[in-house]
């Protein structure tokens, strides 16, 4: 599903190039659940953004579902992202002027889903994440944990082939966090969804079947994980 070769990304500063990613070679097959770990500043979020086509890179090649992302035009990349990828952001990115239900519904507008189907899908998500009682509230009226749940529901509503999650439980209490990881496990095992999560938590990382460690923008000692 994902294959990168020698992906390198840098920014120019007064002192020359500052490398954010160096020589990233990755292969992720459909149905995998991969955890990316590493200290702050190691390039985890940058890598996730590159894989999610929210960010570009300077060198290397990236094939996603047999499409050469590195040679696609911006509009083609956007289409590929829209139809295949769900993204859970660390900073939520909810729309302040929309209610919880409207925020969750937003991706469906871009997929031309009929109103009745949109309504049913939103109801299903509100139910799944126990936020039915919050559906008419605005993001500013929610706790950080509740906002995160709304962001997760919004990412999942299009039933993406690939789910990218940046610290998905960072703002949740331990019970909510565990519920989210269980939900990911179900999506991965029962629905075959490919999941890549960035996490600081060894406990959360263990839900994946593989852990990739980053340090200074480079991959170090990949290791398998057979706990689950």
Explain what this protein looks like in three dimensions.
The chain has 228 residues and is an alpha/beta fold. It has a single domain (2-224), classed as P-loop containing nucleotide triphosphate hydrolases (Rossmann fold, 3-Layer(aba) Sandwich). It has seven helices and ten strands. A six-stranded mixed β-sheet has the order 6-7-8-3-9-10, sandwiched between helices. A four-stranded antiparallel β-sheet has the order 2-1-4-5, with helices on one face. Strand 9 and strand 10 (218-224) form a beta hairpin. The longest helix has 18 residues, at 174-191. The protein is globular, with a radius of gyration of 18 Å. The model has no long low-confidence stretch (mean pLDDT 92).
Output the keywords.
alpha/beta; Rossmann fold; six-stranded mixed β-sheet; 34% helix
Q: Layout of helices and strands, plus pairs?
A:
Elements: E1 2-13, E2 16-28, E3 33-37, H1 44-51, E4 59-64, E5 67-68, H2 74-84, E6 85-88, H3 100-109, H4 115-128, H5 144-156, E7 162-166, H6 174-191, E8 194-198, H7 202-205, E9 210-215, E10 218-224
Parallel strand pairs: 3-8, 3-9, 6-7, 7-8
Antiparallel strand pairs: 1-2, 1-4, 4-5, 9-10
Helix pairs in contact: 3-4, 3-5, 4-5
